[in-house]
Amino acid sequence: MANFFPRWTNLFPLKIAICAGSVVMGIVAAFTLYATPKNTLVGYQPAQPIPFSHKIHVEQLGLDCRYCHSFVDVSDHSNLPSANTCWNCHQHVQRQSPKLEPLHRAMDKTHPLYDGKPIQWVKVHKAPDYVKFSHSAHVNRGVSCVSCHGQVNEMEVVYHAKDLSMGFCLECHRNPHDQVRPLEEVFNLKYNAEEYLKNSVVLNAKGERITDKDSLGKHLSEQFRLQPKESCATCHH
Ligand code: HEC
Ligand code: HEC
Ligand code: HEC
Ligand code: HEC
Ligand code: HEC
Fold first, then answer.
1. Residue 108, domain member (yes or no)
2. Residue 126 falls inside a structural domain
């Protein structure tokens, strides 16, 4: 009898078995991870070359996150500001502050130690290389910085507030409704849904006014057509 199948198909069952095996192992690993909270990074607060206070700049001066993290809503990565952004103000304000010495080295040509090099900020949050993450995918779907970074607006020095583990990501992907907010409130870390609904009229599909947080979340999820994925390939290369 003729062989209808090319030779390589003989390897097929083996390949399937290997694939199935690694998927099962992956799922077991995933469940183990999901079940064991990894809190090792929570609280991580490295010293920075300049003790930059978000509390002063966001809370007191009222600067928007995008003034400094200007790519956060258009790209996967959220950039840090260049020394130039600081210098715009600090060539005039608090110019003599000893805390700003590294800024002078980067920007102030009259400074004896001027080298023009960028300020070496120490990274606080870092996803492992095998994880895919996108800021703009979240920020443009009503997910605020506060969900993943905590109350940065009140931080004198930034620290790792949430564990950002796989379980943490999945928890919201399974049920994003109570974590989404109107797009214009994403950068307002003091947003409060009840207050918001008192001051703005939001109508549901039937034209009735929405008065509680739960209905607002469901309404926004529908409006954004939210369908956060849970497949492994969503977050892994
Ligand atoms: C005036 C500029 C400025 C503004 C405004 C600003 N930031 Fe920052 N941000 C910085 C600088 C500089 C750093 C790096 C130094 C540090 O970590 O403190 C930073 C660091 C961060 C980090 C940690 C980055 C890492 O290494 O993981 C987060 C998260 C962050 N900012 C969130 C925010 C949020 C949220 C807002 C708005 C509520 C905001 N920032 C507003 C300048 C700014
Ligand atoms: C929009 C203007 C503005 C920008 C941009 C800005 N700052 Fe400031 N910063 C201020 C003002 C105003 C104060 C003083 C607040 C006060 O005294 O209450 C201040 C205070 C500070 C202080 C405290 C100084 C001291 O001796 O107490 C540091 C440090 C500082 N800023 C660092 C930075 C860095 C680093 C950047 C860039 C990432 C930056 N600032 C960007 C306006 C700005
Ligand atoms: C859904 C969770 C989530 C949200 C929402 C979020 N971040 Fe992040 N952020 C992360 C993760 C995860 C990292 C580490 C990314 C990496 O290493 O690639 C990070 C890293 C950063 C960094 C360091 C630079 C970088 O991209 O690695 C800055 C700055 C930052 N975030 C600012 C913000 C600001 C500002 C907002 C709100 C406008 C925000 N983030 C919203 C999860 C989030
Ligand atoms: C607070 C809620 C929340 C958290 C926490 C969260 N996400 Fe998401 N994520 C969303 C929403 C909402 C979307 C947009 C889904 C859509 O557009 O349908 C999204 C989209 C994404 C996307 C774009 C792919 C897609 O579904 O279209 C990736 C990748 C992603 N998330 C990865 C992560 C990772 C990695 C983490 C943890 C570090 C994380 N997310 C944490 C709510 C969240
Ligand atoms: C919503 C995003 C998201 C989805 C979907 C997701 N993961 Fe993850 N996964 C992560 C993040 C983020 C980490 C890193 C956690 C950390 O840094 O603690 C991770 C870590 C892992 C690790 C740990 C690797 C190590 O070396 O410790 C394994 C294994 C893993 N994921 C497997 C899976 C499998 C299998 C699936 C599909 C069933 C899956 N993941 C779906 C976000 C996700």
1. no
2. yes
State pTM to two decimals: 0.91
Looking at the chain, the whole-number percentage of residues with pLDDT higher than 90 is 82
For 208, counting Cβ atoms within 10 Å of its Cβ (0-12 exposed, 13-18 middle, 19+ buried), the class is exposed
Residues with CB under 6 A from ligand 4: 131-134, 137-138, 141, 143, 147-148, 164, 169, 172-173, 176, 179, 226-229, 234-235
Q: Does the residue 136 lie in any domain?
A: yes
Distance 138 CA to ligand 3 centre (A): 10
- Is 86 touching ligand 2 by the criterion CB < 6 Å? yes
- The single-letter code of the amino acid at 178 is D
* Domain-embedded: residue 21: no
In this structure, what token pair is assigned to residue 114? 């001027």
How many structural domains comprise the chain?
Answer: 1
| Chain mean position to CA 24 | 29
Tens-place pLDDT, residues 44-70? 999 999 999 999 999 999 999 999 999
Output the six-digit token pair for 39: 């809190």
- Residues of the domain holding 141: 54-80+121-235
CA 97 to ligand 2 center in whole angstroms: 10
Q: Which of 63, 86, 96, 104 has most ligand 2 atoms within 8 Å of CB, for mutation?
A: 86
Residues near 190 by beta carbon (within 8 Å), at least 6 away in sequence? 153
